[in-house]
């Protein structure tokens, strides 16, 4: 494993921690600034929307410099945002700090995915991408529970101060270990956005919104679901989230490995199994033991889709892989926001705390149908290419 991948994973760890740890310290933040919990929730949605908006803007601006310089700039933005959050005198300033930090998120993972793929042989690109995302999954095992504990014991400001230090470590790692690669090949804004003329790019982002959105439909409301339905204590929910994070970690690694061998078949299996497990969760959520088994499965299957989708969208936008990759990261966060809203709608309609699982299963099932469409279109395109070899019986996407 190139050491540069370790530097990217450290940056991803810090970003993953700051994205999710706010959920663990939200009551403390709301109490200090004297705002309601729903109002404090803007610190979550504001961050997600910042990723959606910031990812394409900063990625396009970054075409004027080398990818390494842009990664260093993004880590600098991340550090400033978290320091601003840690020292915020008012809730408004805290929200600004969250949005500033979020601007680094999408572009870092988008550019980082391209850099990671460039460091290894073509047959190992998806695995390299998954290794970078390992930092994000480990954040859910160590960073988020640890940051929540520190926030409850020493104050949430200390948590964000520590996250800023993680950003500094990531900055130094990128500076020391990531090689200079020159400017991206597509340095013109028009060329970058031309990638979105390809329907496959839009299909990939739609699969991302719906597939990972299916996971967040359930996970957003995991606390009331597990306490009111399964009968766990509030402290028990923390450990359930650790199990979910372990599932994410394993699914990410397996998704990268198998996507290198057979990309689309891997995606088919992961999305179909995810839809089934989310549907099953409406039943297993009533049992403490079965819920503890189902949660890591949801995490594993959800994150098994990340490396293949990132690789797929980069393959479909060869002239502008960086922007397409960053836009797909924005799609993850758009899916998070959409599914959280839909989950809240069905709960408010009186269908109970397990009803978001039905929503998640429907979203994942729709993503599966889109993956079939994407594979069909890719197969037809390849067959129509002049001089193309006969299309084999195996799914063509497996060659990616």
UniProtKB/TrEMBL annotation:
<dbReference type="InterPro" id="IPR011701">
    <property type="entry name" value="MFS"/>
</dbReference>
<dbReference type="InterPro" id="IPR020846">
    <property type="entry name" value="MFS_dom"/>
</dbReference>
<feature type="transmembrane region" description="Helical">
    <location>
        <begin position="330"/>
        <end position="352"/>
    </location>
</feature>
<feature type="transmembrane region" description="Helical">
    <location>
        <begin position="358"/>
        <end position="377"/>
    </location>
</feature>
<feature type="transmembrane region" description="Helical">
    <location>
        <begin position="70"/>
        <end position="93"/>
    </location>
</feature>
<feature type="transmembrane region" description="Helical">
    <location>
        <begin position="199"/>
        <end position="224"/>
    </location>
</feature>
<feature type="domain" description="Major facilitator superfamily (MFS) profile">
    <location>
        <begin position="4"/>
        <end position="382"/>
    </location>
</feature>
<feature type="transmembrane region" description="Helical">
    <location>
        <begin position="42"/>
        <end position="63"/>
    </location>
</feature>
<feature type="transmembrane region" description="Helical">
    <location>
        <begin position="99"/>
        <end position="121"/>
    </location>
</feature>
<keyword id="KW-0472">Membrane</keyword>
<keyword id="KW-1133">Transmembrane helix</keyword>
<feature type="transmembrane region" description="Helical">
    <location>
        <begin position="128"/>
        <end position="150"/>
    </location>
</feature>
<keyword id="KW-1003">Cell membrane</keyword>
<feature type="transmembrane region" description="Helical">
    <location>
        <begin position="236"/>
        <end position="255"/>
    </location>
</feature>
<dbReference type="InterPro" id="IPR036259">
    <property type="entry name" value="MFS_trans_sf"/>
</dbReference>
<feature type="transmembrane region" description="Helical">
    <location>
        <begin position="262"/>
        <end position="283"/>
    </location>
</feature>
<protein>
    <submittedName>
        <fullName>MFS transporter</fullName>
    </submittedName>
</protein>
<keyword id="KW-0812">Transmembrane</keyword>
<feature type="transmembrane region" description="Helical">
    <location>
        <begin position="289"/>
        <end position="309"/>
    </location>
</feature>
<dbReference type="InterPro" id="IPR050189">
    <property type="entry name" value="MFS_Efflux_Transporters"/>
</dbReference>
<dbReference type="Pfam" id="PF07690">
    <property type="entry name" value="MFS_1"/>
</dbReference>
<feature type="transmembrane region" description="Helical">
    <location>
        <begin position="156"/>
        <end position="178"/>
    </location>
</feature>
